[in-house]
Design goal:
This protein is α+β, with helices and mostly antiparallel strands and 164 residues long. It is built from 1 helix and 9 strands; from the N terminus they run αβββββββββ. A hairpin with a 4-residue loop joins strand 7 and strand 8.
Length: 164
Amino acid sequence: MMARSLAKGFTLIEILVVLLIITILAGVTIARLPAFSQDAEFETETRRLELLFNMARQESILDSMEFGFRLTDDGYKFLKFDDGTQSWKDAENPFQARSLPEDLKLAISADGDGFSLLGKNLPPILILSSGENTPFRLILRSRVQETSRTLMSEGYGEFVWDQQ
């Protein structure tokens, strides 16, 4: 009788097939990494804007000062009204000017007709010490993902994102 040898293990073909499948999955995952990163930037900016607006509202009430919000060429900034000079000054940390990532864009739709504060170059969004603010819609758009969210306020209360 002849003894039959049973080989245990994987053949070269089986190993190559597994490597091919892993390579394809890795390629698909790596191709999607920029989308994950851009989605994270979009979500981070939405949380940051809501937090900064609500902090500015609370600080304006507690410290009896007026805040403003203005878009810049590459982002946005908060301003504080200086009673001594009767002018708007750039706000300090954590309200300092911020740049947006290249794929994000902000737009403002505000109704500032109800406020009449003295001063040149009035910011489009005002957050007043009385608890009032300019009714507005702040639209954050992602150019790459073609999505947008709108931070809004009717003039009183918290600033909230419109769920789209």
